[in-house]
Amino acid sequence: MLTRYIFSRLLLMIPTLFGVMLVAFIITQFVPGGPVEQLISELKGQNKQGEASTGVEGLYRGATGLDAKRIAELKALYGFDKPAPERFFLMVQNYVFFELGESYFYHQSVIDLILAKLPVSLSIGLWTFFLTYLIAIPLGISKALHDGSAFDITTSTLILIGYATPSFVLGVFLLVLFGGGSFFNLFPLRGLISDHWDSLPLMAKITDYLWHLVLPITALLVTNLALMTFLTKNSFLAEIKQQYVITALANGLTPNAILYRHVFRNAIIPIATSFPTAFVTAFFSGSLLIETIFSLDGLGLLAYQSIIQRDYPVVLGSLYIFTLLSLFAKLLTDISYVLIDPRIQYGSINQ
């Protein structure tokens, strides 16, 4: 049953992935100012200063501009000499083998480019992921056990204030307050490591790395806590009010025994089953504005720059990897439902 379900879901991923890439490819065909147009503009702008440093020599002819033959050469350079359907199916064929092409702007493999930027996004995303769950689950349980108390009301107010504050606004505030502005100079302003990081001993390297993460992680964490905290609280509240809890109390079980032996196991299901999706999303969860504010060269900044520069191989390649990982994460989430709660059957997961 499990094998058949996984196989059917894998088959369904194919048209989903194909549809996502088709829509993205079509959109790129209608966006003005593509790579050919940008190169022509660059050639015109650099003509007065000499030969353009684009790797395409002798294409621009001064006041006469570019004739049709030269424009055709530029289109061939970027692969636009083929019809759009042929280019799409050639792209799909290459993507099957994870051949994502070469960046127009960076002039290197898209895979290598993604791998080069990945450590920054991993550092931001995974630390935010782990700290969110580490703080939100105990806090949510405490709020459920003290529902309506002063502790519950106070923490809810603080969490909602943090949720309503945009992460980039909080990031700027933290930089001004703790980054050597008009107040305290406690944390570094930019990057993940110091310039002299390679010369530091091991423990100093770890400390330096973690010290650089404090401000950006705090800016993201404060805005991410609300959803998981209230999900945990509501899940435990719903279980605490179940009849089996009242029966267990009547049979003499202590509140702690009921909480950790019965309530916790049932209430944690919606939280635990979100782990796969949240974990995979962490690979691409670096906020663009946070990366910009703290000068962190991650996937968010790469994606934004690629869109502005019409670097289609990077845009489509990143989208392909993220969509593929998201589909597998959804499959793992559905499987985890059944593994954690045997009452759920595979055939009814998506019903």
Automatic annotation (TrEMBL):
Location(s), subcellular: Cell membrane
GO biological process, alphabetically ordered: microcin transport; transmembrane transport
Keywords: Cell membrane, Membrane, Transmembrane, Transmembrane helix, Transport
Membrane protein topology class: Multi-pass membrane protein
Gene3D superfamilies noted in UniProt: MetI-like
Transmembrane segments: 12-31, 124-145, 157-189, 209-231, 267-294, 314-333
UniProt keyword Isomerase, yes or no: no
Domain of life: Bacteria
SUPFAM superfamilies linked: MetI-like (SSF161098)
Protein's name according to its UniProt entry: ABC transporter permease subunit
Organism: Beggiatoa leptomitoformis
